[in-house]
Amino acid sequence: MNASYYIDNLKLQPHPEGGFYREIYRSSERIAAGALPSRFTGDRNFSTSIYYLLQQGEHSAFHRIKSDEGWHFYAGGALWVHMIDKEGNYKCQKLGHHLEDGEVFQFVVPATVWFASEPAPGTSFILGGCTVSPGFDFADFEMADKKTLLQSFPQHKEIIERLCK
Known about the structure:
Layout (H helix, E strand, L loop, with lengths): L2 H7 L3 E2 L5 E7 L3 E2 L12 E2 L2 E8 L4 E6 L2 E9 L2 E6 L5 E6 L10 E4 L4 E6 L5 E9 L7 E3 L2 H7 L4 H7 L2
Antiparallel strand pairs: 1-2, 2-5, 3-4, 5-12, 6-11, 6-13, 7-10, 7-12, 8-9, 8-11
């Protein structure tokens, strides 16, 4: 199977961050704004999930959201998820099926951590999924400004230069 097979059969659409996606679940129940941390500006669904596909040469640019985001591996090769927390600590988590190489089937990007992703070298595509709780809302999405991110984390210049829009 190749990327086109999954894009067509899962009816994936271009994603604003890069790659392709389709929302597959949005809970019908909501959490009231008053019950959420103050970083949220309104009610949120309990949870949301998407399919997400990246092909070699594509990347998801640095961004952050206000919720935890669980990543899941489904098909293809490995995905590298680059994360920078508010203290400037960098980590690259490998999502994939080669456990002996440090890849994992799932992990969580904590809320408010800057992150970007790209297929690992030699990976033609990666099909994964993301589950967000409280549910994803574009009001909670912030695309990184390259200049601001570089001022905050100059020690990560190479990765920021490469994976910021």
